[in-house]
Amino acid sequence: MKASQIFAAALLLSVNTAVQADDITAPTTDFSKPERYEKYPGGATTHTKKLNRDSFSHPAANMSFERESDFQVGNGFFKRLWVSAPASTQAGDGLGPLYNARSCQRCHLKDGRGHPPNGPQDNAVSMFLRLSIPPQNDEDRRRLREHRLNVIPEPTYGTQLQDFAIQGHAAEGHMHIAYKEVPVELADGTVVHLRRPTYSVTDLGYGPLHPDTMLSPRVAPQMIGLGLLEAIDERDILAQADPEDKDGNGISGRPNRVWCAEDNKPMLGRFGWKAGKPSVNEQSQGAFAGDVGISVPLHPAGSGECTEREEACRKAPDGNSPQYDNLEASREITDLVAFYARNLAVPARRDYDDPEVLAGKRLFYRTGCIQCHTPKYVTREDSIGPEQSHQLIWPYTDLLLHDMGEGLADHRPEGEASGREWRTAPLWGIGLTPVVNGHSYYLHDGRARSLLEAILWHGGEAQAQRAAVVKLSEAERKQLVRFVASL
Amino acid sequence: MNKAFSLVVLFGLSGQLWAAPSEKDVLRHYADLAHAKYEDSLTTARALRKAVDRLIATPTEANLAEARGAWRAARVPYQQTEVYRFGNAIVDDWEGRVNAWPLDEGLIDYVDTGYGAESDQNPYYAANVIANPRLVLSGRTIDASTISKELLADELQEVDHIEANVATGYHAIEFLLWGQDLNGTGPGAGHRPASDFDPRRCTGGNCDRRAAYLKVATDLLVSDLQWMTDQWAKDGAARRSLLDGDPKDGIAAILTGMGSLSYGELAGQRMKLGLMLHDPEEEHDCFSDNTHWSYYYDALGIRDAYTGAYTRIDGTELNGPSPSDLVVATDPAADKGLRDRLDITLAKMQGLVDSAEKRGVAFDQLIGEGNEAGNAQVMAAINALLAQTKAIEKVVAALGLEAIAFEGSDSPDAPEKVFY
Questions:
Q1: In terms of Cα–Cα distance, which of B100, B225, B265 is closest to B169?
Q2: Is B392's CB within 8 Å of A65's CB?
Q3: Phi, then psi, of A153 in degrees rounded to 5
Q4: By CB neighbour count within 10 A (0-12 exposed, 13-18 middle, 19+ buried), where does B397 fall?
Q5: Which pLDDT score is estimated for B14?
Q6: What pLDDT score does B113 carry?
Q7: Do A288 and A294 meet the contact criterion of CB atoms below 8 Å apart?
Q8: pLDDT, position B162
C-alpha cells in the first residue's frame, strides 16, 4: 500500500538541510534500543505488507499511483516468456538462439534469490556459469586496462554458458557441480559442515573450451532495493575505499571500475556479485542479451550472445523488427524493466526491537562486520526516480570489493576485481529468503545452506571477523544470526 | 407560496445541509458491501459447482455450455470485489489462490504442439498433471495419483516459486472449460469438446482425471470464497482490521484499492502490456474471451467503492455512506471531478463490451498488431483510467490523507520514514 507516496514530495519541503548526513549515518554505539527509523531499511520506499512469497515483489511504498502503471507493465515484461523468431507476435519474439531462461522471472524467482540445482537431474536452475580467458595479447590487455571490457570472452562460448537453445540449435553445455562436505569446528566444540563445490562443464555443444577457461558460478541475486543502491552518492562509497589498507585494519575495500556504455566512459561498478555493472539499466540490459538472448539498445545483435564461432546460431532468424527500433526489446521496454527493477521495495524489518536481536546487532557491530557491511546511507536528492531521493537507507554494504580468501575465490577476475575479490553483498531482506524462495542458500553460488555457513565461508580480509564468530558462545551465535535474519 | 418555496429550497439543498457521515459509518458500509460481493461470488461459485457436477455426470455440449455460462456469471460479482485488493492486506494475501494470472496452462493439461517446443527453466511448463499421475521434476517426485485440494493448492500452485505455475482459481477452471484459444488475434475463444470429460468416449486422454481436476478446482474455489466471505462477516478479520484501526487509515485503504487497481493493475499489467505486445495471450480471460466483462466489472467495482453502491446478483440495490459523501462535505469540486471520471471510464469499458458482444471483436482482437482503431480504443480506456487516477489523488488531498501512512499498525510514524 501507499505510504506517504504522492506526498513524499511535499514532505521533502520540510527537509532540514542543516542536519549533517554524517551524524545520521555514523554507526550507533547504543544497542539498548533500536535506532530511529531502522525498522524501515528502504526509508519511505519500505513496504510493510504481509510477509509471504510476494514480499519482494511490491513497488516502492512511496510511489504515486500513476507510476504504478509503469511498474506493473515492467513487471509484465519481467515475467514475459519470450518465444523464438519468427512468431505471430512481432513484439514478443527473439528468444535466444542461446539462452539460460525464457524470462527474467524464471531465474529471479519471486524477485528473490536463486538456488543451485537439487541434484544432477535438476535443470530447473536459477544459476549459471560465467566464462572468460586471461588476456591473450596486447590488444586484450589494453581493453582491460582502459576498462572497455571486464573480461576476455571464451573464444567460442562467450562470457557465459547458455544451457538452453531454441529448436534446431545445440545448447552450449551444462553446469556440473560436485560438493564435498568439510567439517569446521567452532570454539565451543560445535561442528558445522560446509559444502565445498567444484564446477565443470559437461555436454559441450560447440567443441572444447579454451584450455585456460575460467569458470565462475553465479546465482540470480535478490532484486529488492536496487534503485536505492544506485542512488547512493559515489563519494560516499569511494570514501570507504582503502585499497592499500592505510589504516592497517586488514581490510582494503576497492571500487570496481567498469565501462558505462550509456556514457561511454568507465564508472564505479555497483551491481553483480563482483560489481561488474555500473547501473540498474546496464545490468538488466546485459541480462536481457546474455541470459535471454534478447537484443536491446546496448546489445543490438539479434543473435544474443552467439559468438562468431557459433555460426549457425549467428544466422538464425532474429526478432529485430523495424517498428521496435530494429530490436527485440526496444528502449521503451528496457526502460520499463529497469524502472521495475529499480523500484522493488525492501520489506520492513521484523523483531528489530527484540532484546535478542539487539544483542546480535551489538555483536555484529563489535566483531567488525560493519567494516564492510556498512549499515546506512542517505541517498542523493537527484536520484533517477523521486522514490529514491534523499532517503535514509540501511543496506549493510559498502559496495566495494574485498579479498574473501581462497575458500570463496573463483580465480576469475572481472574488471578491477581479482579472482579472490567479491563485492560486499547487501544484507537487507536476506532473512526473508526462506519466506520468499523456500530455501536458505546464500553466497554467490548458493553453497551456504544457512546464514551461519555463509558467515563461516568468509575469509581473506574477513578472517578476523570470522575468527571472532567462531569464538562466540552458542547463545551469542544465535543472537548474531537472528540479527542478520531480522534485516 | 413563500412557505412552499422555502420547502423546495430546503429539499433542494438537503444534500449539503445534512451532516456528512462519519468515517466509521463509511467503513462499516464498505465492509458490508465487501461481504455482499464475496457472498454473491460464493453463491455464483456454488452454481458453477452444480453445473460442473452436471457436466461431469453427463458430458454433453449443452452441459458444457451451461458450465461456461455459470463461470461467466461467477465472474460478475467476483470482478467487482477486486477493488478490495491492495487496500486490504488480507485480500491481497489470499487473492492469488483464486485469480492468479497469467498461467502456463501446460502444467494442467494437454496443449497445442506450438506451445511447448522450447525447453525451459520451468520444467512444470508442460508437465500436464492430468496426464501424469507421477511427476518427476526439478529433482523431486510429486505424487499426483489422487487429484486433491492439497495437491493443487499446496503442491502445484506456484510450484518451484514460478508465478505462472497456476493450478487453482478462476483461470485454471476457465482453461479446463474452454481449452486454449488458438485463434490468435482472430475471432473466437477456446474450443474444448465436452467429450474431454467423458471417460466412455474420451477425447484428449485421461478424461476421468480431467473431470477430477475440474471438480477439485471448483470445490477449492467455493471453499476459498467461503473463507473470504467469513472474513467480512461480523467479527471477521478483514472487517475488524478495517474498523478497529484509525478510521483515516481505513478511508486511505479504500482509496488505495481504487488507485492501485485503476492504474497499476488494470491500465498497466492488464491493458497496456497487451497493447504494447499485441499478444492475444495478454488478456485477462484469454481462454473464454470474457476479458471485456472482467475489465468492465473491475471499473464498476472501483466506482461503487467510491459511491457506496452495489447491485447484488438478485437485483437488490445497496446504498449507504460513502467516501463520496465525505468528499462532498469538504471539496464538492473534487467529488464531482472524480464522479465524472469514474463514469467516463465505465463508458469506455462499455465500449470494449459493445465491441465484443455487438460487433464480435473481442479484446484480444482489439490489441492485435495493425488494428489501429482497436488499439486506439484500448488506449482511450487506459487514458480514462489515468485521468481517473489523478482525480483519486485530488480526493486524497481533499480528505487530508496526504500524511497518512496507508498501511497497518505502524502508520502514525510512517511520515517520518521520509528522512528529514
A1: B100
A2: yes
A3: -60, 150
A4: middle
A5: 42
A6: 72
A7: yes
A8: 81
Nearest by CB to A73, from B164, B260, B273: name it.
B273
Contact A65 B259 (CB under 8 A): yes
Peptide bond into A243 cis (omega under 30): no
Q: What sign results for the dihedral spanned by CA atoms A382, A273, A438, A363?
A: negative
Q: How many CA atoms lie within 13 A of A208 on its CB side?
A: 3
Chain centroid to CA B139 = 35
C-alpha cell at A262: 550509456
Residue B72, Cβ neighbours under 10 Å: how many? 18
At A244, list the grid cell.
592499500
Q: From the CB of residue B126, how many other CB atoms can be counted at a distance below 10 Å?
A: 18
SS percent in chain B: helix, strand, coil, step 5: 65, 5, 30
Task: Determine phi and psi for A194, rounding to 5 degrees.
Answer: -105, 150
Structural contact between residues A200 and A173, judged by C-beta atoms closer than 8 angstroms: no
Helix (H/G/I), strand (E/B), else coil: B121: coil
As a whole number of angstroms, the distance between CA A473 and CA B220 comes to 49
State the count of interchain CB pairs (< 8 A) between A and B: 209
A331 in contact with B, Cβ within 8 Å? no
Dig out the grid coordinates for A101 from the structure.
531462461
Per-residue pLDDT tens digits for A133-148: 999 999 999 999 999 9
Q: Is the pLDDT of residue A473 over 70?
A: yes
Nearest partner of A320 among A303, A305, A344, A341, judged by Cα: A303
Alpha helices in A58-202 (DSSP H): 65-79, 138-145
C-alpha–C-alpha distance, residues A90 and A318, integer Å: 10
* Amino acid symbol at A378: V
Q: Could you give the residue ranges of the DSSP H alpha helices within A352-450?
A: 355-366, 433-437
Nearest-Cα distance to chain B for A15, in Å, is: 5
Helix extents (H) in B61-150: 61-81, 89-99, 149-150
3-state SS assignment for residue B364: helix
Geometric angle at alpha carbon B295, from A4 and B72, rounded to 5°: 135
Which residue, A95, A104, A128, A106, is CA-closest to A313? A95
| A239's grid cell | 570514501
Q: Is A168 helix (H, G, I), strand (E, B) or coil?
A: coil
| Among the partner residues A6, A19, A102, nearest to B120 by beta-carbon distance | A102
- Whether ipTM > 0.90 holds is no
Q: What is the pLDDT of residue A5?
A: 40
Report the 10 Å Cβ neighbour count for A189: 7
> Dihedral of the CA atoms B30, B391, B262, B349 (nearest 10)?
100
Chain A nearest-CA distance from B269, in A, is 5
Q: What is the reported pLDDT for B127?
A: 82
